[in-house]
Design brief:
This protein is mainly alpha-helical and 193 residues long. The chain has a domain of 114 residues: Cytochrome c-like domain (Cytochrome Bc1 Complex, Chain D, domain 2), CATH 1.10.760. The protein is 37% helix and 3% strand. The protein contains 6 helices and 2 strands, in the order ααβααααβ. The chain has a two-stranded antiparallel sheet. The two termini are 40 Å apart.
């Protein structure tokens, strides 16, 4: 007798077998017949990441004062006065709160590297026009936000040389994994966790 349960079981087995056959034949195939290889110029356009040591930072510079004007124009409506928070999270303040029941994870209290500020702004801000800012504008906003967190003086100018030298208060709060090192503490849980 062919019941609905048997039908669904047979159907599921057929789907699994078809998927296995299709994935096996696709993995042996090297060209799918569409698209083209990316050129070095196309790849470089997407290669915008910045490392903690400053590798990847572009040419340019920006001051705290320039950043204040840009912040008022581009960031204030979401992040509030001096980065203290608005409809978007606070970017400044929160010093000494990480070990409390209500930590405030801001640039000055939580972020491990000053270059991460540049990298994030460059990639994702402003939220409605990501990657629309010039390098000088990103440096200026980074300088302003580091200043709002009391990490650089009022006359600071950020560039590829000065930015990686800014020491963040929580830099030692992060652990980097070395090759082959497991940074996860405790035992792994694979079922009934």
């Amino acid at each position: 007798m062919f019941t609905p349960d048997r039908f669904f079981h047979s159907f599921a087995v057929a789907v699994v077998l078809a998927t296995a056959v299709a994935s096996g034949s696709a993995s042996a195939q090297t060209h799918y017949g569409f698209g083209k290889p990316a050129t070095p110029e196309e790849i470089s356009g997407w290669n915008i990441d910045v490392s903690p040591d400053g590798s990847g930072l572009p040419q340019g510079s920006g001051s705290v004062e320039q950043g204040k004007a840009l912040y008022t124009q581009l960031c204030l409506s979401c992040h509030g006065e001096a980065g203290k928070g608005g409809t978007a999270p606070a970017l400044a303040g929160g010093e000494g709160t990480l070990a409390t029941p209500k930590p405030k994870r801001t640039i000055g209290s939580f972020w491990p590297y000053a270059t991460t500020v540049f990298d994030y702004i460059n990639r994702a801000m402003p939220w409605d026009k990501p990657q629309s800012l010039k390098s000088d504008e990103v440096y200026a906003l980074t300088a302003m936000l580091l200043n709002a967190n009391k990490l650089v003086p009022d006359d600071a100018v950020m560039n590829a040389e000065t930015l990686p030298k800014v020491r963040m208060p929580n830099q030692s709060g992060f652990k980097s994994a070395r090759k082959g090192e497991n940074v996860v503490q405790g035992s792994r849980c694979m079922k009934s966790c």
